[in-house]
Amino acid sequence: MNQILLYVLFILVGVAASAYFSATEISIISANRLKLRQQAKQGSAAASLALSLLHDQEHVLATTLIGLNLANLATAAFVTSLIEGWLGVGWRASLLSTGVATLVLLVMGEILPKVYASRHATTFVTRNARPIQATEQLFLPATAVIRLFLGLLLRGLRKAPQQPLVTREDLKHLVREVKGDTGHGRKEKKMLGSLLGFTETTAREVMVPMTEVIAIEKGSGISLARALAKRHGFTRLAVYERRIDKVTGVVNIKDILFDKDPDEQVAHYMRPALLVPETKRIDRLLVELQRSEQTMAIVVSEFGSCVGIVTLEDIVEEIVGEMAEEHEIGVRKIREIASGTYVVDALTDIDDLNDELGLELPKGRFDTLAGLLLKHYGRIPAEGERCRISEVEMEIVDAHQFGIGSVKLVLPNGSVERD
Asked: The domain containing residue 21 runs over which residues?
Protein backbone atom coordinates (compact mmCIF):
# COMPACT_ATOMS: atom_id res chain seq x y z
CA MET A 1 0.00 0.00 0.00
CA ASN A 2 2.83 2.40 0.86
CA GLN A 3 4.45 1.66 -2.50
CA ILE A 4 1.19 2.39 -4.34
CA LEU A 5 0.79 5.73 -2.54
CA LEU A 6 4.40 6.57 -3.39
CA TYR A 7 3.78 5.81 -7.09
CA VAL A 8 0.63 7.95 -7.06
CA LEU A 9 2.56 10.79 -5.42
CA PHE A 10 5.32 10.58 -8.06
CA ILE A 11 2.70 10.53 -10.84
CA LEU A 12 1.03 13.67 -9.44
CA VAL A 13 4.40 15.42 -9.20
CA GLY A 14 5.21 14.40 -12.78
CA VAL A 15 1.88 15.67 -14.11
CA ALA A 16 2.32 18.94 -12.20
CA ALA A 17 5.82 19.36 -13.65
CA SER A 18 4.51 18.62 -17.15
CA ALA A 19 1.73 21.20 -16.70
CA TYR A 20 4.21 23.78 -15.42
CA PHE A 21 6.59 23.37 -18.37
CA SER A 22 3.71 23.38 -20.89
CA ALA A 23 2.32 26.60 -19.41
CA THR A 24 5.79 28.15 -19.35
CA GLU A 25 6.34 27.28 -23.02
CA ILE A 26 3.14 28.92 -24.24
CA SER A 27 3.43 31.96 -21.94
CA ILE A 28 6.98 32.69 -23.15
CA ILE A 29 5.68 32.74 -26.73
CA SER A 30 2.48 34.71 -26.03
CA ALA A 31 3.52 37.24 -23.36
CA ASN A 32 2.90 40.90 -24.20
CA ARG A 33 6.28 42.62 -24.27
CA LEU A 34 4.82 46.12 -24.32
CA LYS A 35 2.83 45.45 -21.16
CA LEU A 36 5.91 43.96 -19.48
CA ARG A 37 7.99 47.03 -20.44
CA GLN A 38 5.30 49.27 -18.99
CA GLN A 39 5.28 47.29 -15.73
CA ALA A 40 9.10 47.31 -15.62
CA LYS A 41 9.13 51.11 -15.98
CA GLN A 42 6.73 51.30 -13.04
CA GLY A 43 9.31 49.43 -10.94
CA SER A 44 8.24 45.78 -11.21
CA ALA A 45 11.32 43.60 -10.68
CA ALA A 46 9.40 40.51 -11.81
CA ALA A 47 8.48 42.20 -15.10
CA SER A 48 12.13 43.20 -15.65
CA LEU A 49 13.24 39.61 -15.05
CA ALA A 50 10.51 38.32 -17.38
CA LEU A 51 11.72 40.68 -20.11
CA SER A 52 15.28 39.40 -19.75
CA LEU A 53 13.98 35.83 -20.13
CA LEU A 54 12.05 36.78 -23.27
CA HIS A 55 15.17 38.31 -24.80
CA ASP A 56 16.75 34.83 -24.73
CA GLN A 57 13.60 33.00 -25.76
CA GLU A 58 15.42 30.10 -27.45
CA HIS A 59 17.24 29.22 -24.23
CA VAL A 60 14.04 29.26 -22.18
CA LEU A 61 12.17 27.16 -24.75
CA ALA A 62 15.00 24.61 -24.80
CA THR A 63 14.76 24.43 -21.01
CA THR A 64 10.99 23.91 -21.06
CA LEU A 65 11.24 21.18 -23.70
CA ILE A 66 13.87 19.29 -21.70
CA GLY A 67 11.83 19.60 -18.50
CA LEU A 68 8.61 18.65 -20.30
CA ASN A 69 10.08 15.50 -21.81
CA LEU A 70 11.70 14.42 -18.54
CA ALA A 71 8.44 14.96 -16.66
CA ASN A 72 6.44 13.02 -19.27
CA LEU A 73 8.92 10.11 -19.29
CA ALA A 74 8.96 9.91 -15.49
CA THR A 75 5.16 10.06 -15.30
CA ALA A 76 4.76 7.35 -17.93
CA ALA A 77 7.30 5.14 -16.12
CA PHE A 78 5.51 5.44 -12.76
CA VAL A 79 2.10 4.83 -14.36
CA THR A 80 3.49 1.68 -16.00
CA SER A 81 5.01 0.45 -12.73
CA LEU A 82 1.75 1.10 -10.87
CA ILE A 83 -0.40 -0.78 -13.39
CA GLU A 84 2.07 -3.67 -13.76
CA GLY A 85 2.01 -4.10 -9.98
CA TRP A 86 -1.75 -4.47 -10.27
CA LEU A 87 -2.11 -6.56 -13.48
CA GLY A 88 1.35 -8.04 -13.74
CA VAL A 89 3.76 -7.72 -16.67
CA GLY A 90 2.10 -8.31 -20.04
CA TRP A 91 0.45 -6.74 -23.04
CA ARG A 92 -2.70 -5.78 -21.09
CA ALA A 93 -0.66 -3.79 -18.58
CA SER A 94 1.38 -2.15 -21.36
CA LEU A 95 -1.75 -1.18 -23.32
CA LEU A 96 -3.58 0.18 -20.28
CA SER A 97 -0.57 2.10 -18.95
CA THR A 98 0.02 3.68 -22.38
CA GLY A 99 -3.62 4.78 -22.62
CA VAL A 100 -3.80 6.13 -19.06
CA ALA A 101 -0.48 7.98 -19.28
CA THR A 102 -1.35 9.50 -22.67
CA LEU A 103 -4.79 10.67 -21.52
CA VAL A 104 -3.59 12.13 -18.23
CA LEU A 105 -0.57 13.89 -19.74
CA LEU A 106 -2.52 15.18 -22.75
CA VAL A 107 -5.37 16.67 -20.73
CA MET A 108 -3.73 17.63 -17.43
CA GLY A 109 -0.19 18.17 -18.65
CA GLU A 110 -0.76 19.80 -22.06
CA ILE A 111 -4.22 21.07 -23.01
CA LEU A 112 -5.47 22.63 -19.75
CA PRO A 113 -2.22 24.39 -18.77
CA LYS A 114 -1.66 25.71 -22.30
CA VAL A 115 -5.20 27.05 -22.55
CA TYR A 116 -4.83 28.77 -19.18
CA ALA A 117 -1.37 30.16 -19.95
CA SER A 118 -2.40 31.45 -23.39
CA ARG A 119 -5.18 33.49 -21.75
CA HIS A 120 -2.97 34.77 -18.92
CA ALA A 121 0.45 34.66 -20.59
CA THR A 122 1.82 37.97 -19.30
CA THR A 123 0.59 37.38 -15.75
CA PHE A 124 1.94 33.81 -15.69
CA VAL A 125 5.40 34.70 -16.96
CA THR A 126 5.63 37.61 -14.50
CA ARG A 127 4.63 35.56 -11.46
CA ASN A 128 6.85 32.63 -12.44
CA ALA A 129 9.89 34.56 -13.67
CA ARG A 130 12.12 33.44 -10.78
CA PRO A 131 11.17 29.72 -10.94
CA ILE A 132 11.72 29.82 -14.71
CA GLN A 133 15.14 31.39 -14.20
CA ALA A 134 16.03 28.76 -11.57
CA THR A 135 14.97 25.93 -13.90
CA GLU A 136 16.99 27.52 -16.69
CA GLN A 137 20.10 27.47 -14.51
CA LEU A 138 19.41 23.86 -13.47
CA PHE A 139 19.28 22.62 -17.06
CA LEU A 140 22.03 24.95 -18.32
CA PRO A 141 24.55 22.18 -19.21
CA ALA A 142 21.95 20.19 -21.17
CA THR A 143 20.58 23.24 -23.00
CA ALA A 144 24.11 24.36 -23.90
CA VAL A 145 24.81 21.02 -25.58
CA ILE A 146 21.47 21.06 -27.41
CA ARG A 147 21.95 24.63 -28.65
CA LEU A 148 25.45 23.80 -29.87
CA PHE A 149 24.12 20.78 -31.76
CA LEU A 150 21.27 22.82 -33.28
CA GLY A 151 23.69 25.57 -34.28
CA LEU A 152 25.81 23.09 -36.21
CA LEU A 153 22.75 21.47 -37.75
CA LEU A 154 21.17 24.73 -38.91
CA ARG A 155 24.36 26.47 -40.01
CA GLY A 156 23.82 25.53 -43.64
CA LEU A 157 20.23 26.69 -43.74
CA ARG A 158 19.23 30.15 -44.83
CA LYS A 159 18.75 32.58 -41.98
CA ALA A 160 15.08 32.91 -41.10
CA PRO A 161 13.55 36.37 -41.50
CA GLN A 162 13.60 38.36 -38.29
CA GLN A 163 10.27 38.69 -36.54
CA PRO A 164 8.95 42.22 -36.04
CA LEU A 165 9.86 43.69 -32.68
CA VAL A 166 6.31 44.95 -32.17
CA THR A 167 3.23 43.23 -33.58
CA ARG A 168 -0.09 44.79 -34.60
CA GLU A 169 -1.71 43.34 -31.47
CA ASP A 170 1.03 44.92 -29.33
CA LEU A 171 0.30 48.32 -30.89
CA LYS A 172 -3.45 47.91 -30.34
CA HIS A 173 -2.80 47.08 -26.69
CA LEU A 174 -0.56 50.15 -26.38
CA VAL A 175 -3.26 52.40 -27.84
CA ARG A 176 -5.82 50.99 -25.38
CA GLU A 177 -3.44 51.65 -22.48
CA VAL A 178 -2.78 55.28 -23.48
CA LYS A 179 -4.71 57.70 -21.31
CA GLY A 180 -5.96 60.55 -23.49
CA ASP A 181 -7.26 63.01 -20.91
CA THR A 182 -7.01 66.06 -23.16
CA GLY A 183 -8.97 66.69 -26.34
CA HIS A 184 -5.87 66.21 -28.48
CA GLY A 185 -4.99 63.04 -26.59
CA ARG A 186 -8.39 61.51 -27.24
CA LYS A 187 -8.29 62.46 -30.92
CA GLU A 188 -4.81 61.01 -31.40
CA LYS A 189 -5.79 57.82 -29.56
CA LYS A 190 -8.88 57.42 -31.73
CA MET A 191 -6.87 58.09 -34.90
CA LEU A 192 -4.24 55.50 -33.98
CA GLY A 193 -6.94 52.95 -33.20
CA SER A 194 -8.66 53.64 -36.54
CA LEU A 195 -5.37 53.36 -38.39
CA LEU A 196 -4.56 49.99 -36.81
CA GLY A 197 -8.04 48.70 -37.58
CA PHE A 198 -8.00 50.12 -41.12
CA THR A 199 -7.34 46.76 -42.79
CA GLU A 200 -10.16 45.11 -40.82
CA THR A 201 -12.87 47.68 -41.66
CA THR A 202 -15.33 46.84 -44.43
CA ALA A 203 -17.23 49.02 -46.88
CA ARG A 204 -20.48 48.33 -45.03
CA GLU A 205 -19.08 49.92 -41.86
CA VAL A 206 -18.24 53.28 -43.50
CA MET A 207 -20.87 53.54 -46.25
CA VAL A 208 -23.71 56.04 -46.42
CA PRO A 209 -26.91 53.91 -46.55
CA MET A 210 -29.17 54.29 -49.58
CA THR A 211 -31.89 55.81 -47.38
CA GLU A 212 -29.59 58.84 -46.97
CA VAL A 213 -28.25 58.95 -50.54
CA ILE A 214 -29.39 61.76 -52.82
CA ALA A 215 -29.83 60.01 -56.18
CA ILE A 216 -31.54 60.79 -59.49
CA GLU A 217 -33.43 58.64 -62.01
CA LYS A 218 -31.53 58.17 -65.28
CA GLY A 219 -34.44 59.52 -67.34
CA SER A 220 -34.55 62.83 -65.42
CA GLY A 221 -33.42 66.08 -66.98
CA ILE A 222 -30.10 67.70 -66.12
CA SER A 223 -31.95 70.71 -64.69
CA LEU A 224 -33.17 68.49 -61.84
CA ALA A 225 -29.64 67.19 -61.30
CA ARG A 226 -28.32 70.76 -61.07
CA ALA A 227 -31.05 71.67 -58.58
CA LEU A 228 -30.30 68.63 -56.38
CA ALA A 229 -26.58 69.36 -56.46
CA LYS A 230 -27.15 73.00 -55.52
CA ARG A 231 -29.58 72.15 -52.73
CA HIS A 232 -27.44 69.45 -51.12
CA GLY A 233 -23.94 70.65 -52.02
CA PHE A 234 -22.81 67.50 -53.85
CA THR A 235 -20.53 67.32 -56.89
CA ARG A 236 -21.63 63.80 -57.87
CA LEU A 237 -24.98 62.07 -57.85
CA ALA A 238 -25.80 58.37 -58.02
CA VAL A 239 -28.01 57.52 -61.00
CA TYR A 240 -30.59 54.75 -60.71
CA GLU A 241 -32.98 52.99 -63.05
CA ARG A 242 -36.62 52.66 -61.86
CA ARG A 243 -35.63 51.78 -58.24
CA ILE A 244 -33.12 53.54 -56.03
CA ASP A 245 -31.48 50.23 -55.08
CA LYS A 246 -30.62 49.65 -58.77
CA VAL A 247 -27.86 52.21 -59.25
CA THR A 248 -26.41 52.05 -62.76
CA GLY A 249 -23.97 54.94 -62.79
CA VAL A 250 -22.74 58.27 -61.47
CA VAL A 251 -23.11 61.75 -62.92
CA ASN A 252 -20.48 64.43 -62.31
CA ILE A 253 -22.11 67.84 -61.91
CA LYS A 254 -19.17 69.46 -63.73
CA ASP A 255 -20.20 67.58 -66.89
CA ILE A 256 -23.68 69.16 -66.93
CA LEU A 257 -22.97 72.52 -65.35
CA PHE A 258 -22.83 74.52 -68.58
CA ASP A 259 -25.03 72.42 -70.87
CA LYS A 260 -27.45 74.58 -72.87
CA ASP A 261 -30.35 72.12 -72.98
CA PRO A 262 -31.88 71.74 -69.49
CA ASP A 263 -34.16 68.92 -70.70
CA GLU A 264 -31.26 66.70 -71.77
CA GLN A 265 -31.43 63.40 -69.90
CA VAL A 266 -28.94 62.60 -67.16
CA ALA A 267 -28.32 59.21 -68.84
CA HIS A 268 -26.35 60.94 -71.62
CA TYR A 269 -23.76 62.16 -69.11
CA MET A 270 -23.76 59.16 -66.80
CA ARG A 271 -20.46 57.40 -66.12
CA PRO A 272 -20.18 53.70 -65.15
CA ALA A 273 -20.36 53.12 -61.41
CA LEU A 274 -17.73 51.19 -59.48
CA LEU A 275 -19.65 48.37 -57.76
CA VAL A 276 -18.09 46.70 -54.70
CA PRO A 277 -19.39 44.10 -52.22
CA GLU A 278 -20.26 45.29 -48.72
CA THR A 279 -17.61 42.94 -47.29
CA LYS A 280 -14.75 44.58 -49.22
CA ARG A 281 -12.01 45.92 -46.96
CA ILE A 282 -11.61 49.67 -47.24
CA ASP A 283 -7.82 49.50 -47.66
CA ARG A 284 -8.36 47.50 -50.86
CA LEU A 285 -11.26 49.73 -51.86
CA LEU A 286 -9.01 52.77 -51.54
CA VAL A 287 -6.51 51.22 -53.97
CA GLU A 288 -9.33 50.29 -56.38
CA LEU A 289 -10.71 53.84 -56.32
CA GLN A 290 -7.26 55.23 -57.08
CA ARG A 291 -6.68 52.80 -59.96
CA SER A 292 -10.09 53.51 -61.52
CA GLU A 293 -9.64 57.27 -60.94
CA GLN A 294 -13.01 57.48 -59.21
CA THR A 295 -14.04 59.04 -55.92
CA MET A 296 -17.25 57.09 -55.31
CA ALA A 297 -18.16 53.40 -55.16
CA ILE A 298 -21.59 51.78 -54.98
CA VAL A 299 -21.88 49.13 -52.26
CA VAL A 300 -23.81 46.01 -53.29
CA SER A 301 -25.31 43.39 -50.96
CA GLU A 302 -25.12 39.63 -51.42
CA PHE A 303 -28.61 39.77 -52.96
CA GLY A 304 -27.50 42.14 -55.73
CA SER A 305 -29.19 45.32 -54.51
CA CYS A 306 -27.39 48.59 -53.84
CA VAL A 307 -27.25 49.29 -50.10
CA GLY A 308 -25.09 52.41 -49.95
CA ILE A 309 -22.22 54.46 -51.31
CA VAL A 310 -18.63 54.97 -50.17
CA THR A 311 -16.55 57.98 -51.14
CA LEU A 312 -12.88 58.79 -50.71
CA GLU A 313 -13.93 61.21 -47.99
CA ASP A 314 -15.68 58.40 -46.07
CA ILE A 315 -12.48 56.33 -46.14
CA VAL A 316 -10.28 59.23 -45.04
CA GLU A 317 -12.74 60.11 -42.27
CA GLU A 318 -12.38 56.57 -40.94
CA ILE A 319 -8.82 57.55 -39.95
CA VAL A 320 -8.85 61.27 -39.22
CA GLY A 321 -12.46 61.73 -38.12
CA GLU A 322 -15.32 63.79 -39.48
CA MET A 323 -14.46 66.50 -41.99
CA ALA A 324 -17.15 69.15 -42.28
CA GLU A 325 -18.07 70.29 -45.78
CA GLU A 326 -19.17 73.89 -46.40
CA HIS A 327 -22.83 72.82 -46.41
CA GLU A 328 -22.36 70.85 -43.18
CA ILE A 329 -20.87 73.62 -41.01
CA GLY A 330 -22.84 73.99 -37.79
CA VAL A 331 -24.54 70.60 -38.14
CA ARG A 332 -23.50 67.94 -35.64
CA LYS A 333 -24.84 64.45 -35.10
CA ILE A 334 -24.36 64.78 -31.33
CA ARG A 335 -25.65 67.99 -29.70
CA GLU A 336 -25.58 68.75 -25.96
CA ILE A 337 -28.76 70.51 -24.83
CA ALA A 338 -28.11 70.35 -21.07
CA SER A 339 -25.52 68.95 -18.71
CA GLY A 340 -25.41 65.22 -19.42
CA THR A 341 -28.29 65.42 -21.92
CA TYR A 342 -27.75 65.07 -25.66
CA VAL A 343 -29.85 64.97 -28.82
CA VAL A 344 -28.33 62.47 -31.22
CA ASP A 345 -29.00 61.67 -34.86
CA ALA A 346 -30.36 58.11 -34.85
CA LEU A 347 -28.02 57.17 -37.71
CA THR A 348 -24.94 57.90 -35.58
CA ASP A 349 -22.58 54.93 -35.50
CA ILE A 350 -22.61 53.06 -32.17
CA ASP A 351 -18.79 53.00 -31.99
CA ASP A 352 -18.60 56.76 -32.59
CA LEU A 353 -21.26 57.38 -29.96
CA ASN A 354 -19.45 55.21 -27.40
CA ASP A 355 -16.14 56.96 -28.10
CA GLU A 356 -17.62 60.46 -28.06
CA LEU A 357 -19.69 60.13 -24.88
CA GLY A 358 -17.74 57.41 -23.06
CA LEU A 359 -20.64 54.95 -23.20
CA GLU A 360 -20.76 51.16 -23.44
CA LEU A 361 -23.77 50.67 -25.69
CA PRO A 362 -23.87 47.10 -27.03
CA LYS A 363 -23.03 46.11 -30.61
CA GLY A 364 -24.82 43.46 -32.62
CA ARG A 365 -26.10 42.93 -36.13
CA PHE A 366 -26.57 46.68 -36.50
CA ASP A 367 -24.25 49.66 -36.82
CA THR A 368 -26.23 52.68 -35.66
CA LEU A 369 -28.23 53.96 -32.69
CA ALA A 370 -31.38 53.47 -34.78
CA GLY A 371 -30.48 49.81 -35.28
CA LEU A 372 -29.97 49.35 -31.53
CA LEU A 373 -33.39 50.87 -30.77
CA LEU A 374 -35.18 48.90 -33.48
CA LYS A 375 -33.71 45.71 -32.03
CA HIS A 376 -34.73 46.77 -28.51
CA TYR A 377 -38.35 47.59 -29.44
CA GLY A 378 -38.84 45.06 -32.22
CA ARG A 379 -40.71 47.80 -34.14
CA ILE A 380 -40.42 51.46 -35.06
CA PRO A 381 -41.06 53.34 -31.80
CA ALA A 382 -43.30 56.38 -31.60
CA GLU A 383 -42.17 59.87 -30.64
CA GLY A 384 -41.96 60.29 -26.87
CA GLU A 385 -41.35 56.62 -26.08
CA ARG A 386 -38.62 56.02 -23.51
CA CYS A 387 -36.31 53.15 -22.62
CA ARG A 388 -33.10 52.44 -20.72
CA ILE A 389 -30.16 50.67 -22.40
CA SER A 390 -26.80 50.17 -20.65
CA GLU A 391 -27.80 52.68 -17.92
CA VAL A 392 -28.53 55.38 -20.54
CA GLU A 393 -32.02 56.92 -20.58
CA MET A 394 -33.28 57.28 -24.16
CA GLU A 395 -36.30 59.16 -25.50
CA ILE A 396 -37.46 59.14 -29.13
CA VAL A 397 -37.49 62.80 -30.23
CA ASP A 398 -38.30 62.32 -33.90
CA ALA A 399 -39.70 59.27 -35.70
CA HIS A 400 -41.60 58.56 -38.91
CA GLN A 401 -43.17 55.56 -40.62
CA PHE A 402 -39.84 54.45 -42.10
CA GLY A 403 -37.54 54.87 -39.10
CA ILE A 404 -36.13 56.99 -36.28
CA GLY A 405 -34.86 60.51 -36.79
CA SER A 406 -33.29 61.65 -33.51
CA VAL A 407 -33.01 60.48 -29.92
CA LYS A 408 -32.47 62.25 -26.58
CA LEU A 409 -29.88 60.60 -24.34
CA VAL A 410 -29.51 61.25 -20.61
CA LEU A 411 -26.14 59.99 -19.37
CA PRO A 412 -25.95 58.28 -15.96
CA ASN A 413 -22.83 60.19 -14.90
CA GLY A 414 -23.66 63.60 -16.29
CA SER A 415 -21.79 65.57 -18.93
CA VAL A 416 -18.52 64.41 -20.49
CA GLU A 417 -15.64 66.46 -21.84
CA ARG A 418 -15.74 66.38 -25.65
CA ASP A 419 -13.37 67.49 -28.38
From this structure: 2-154
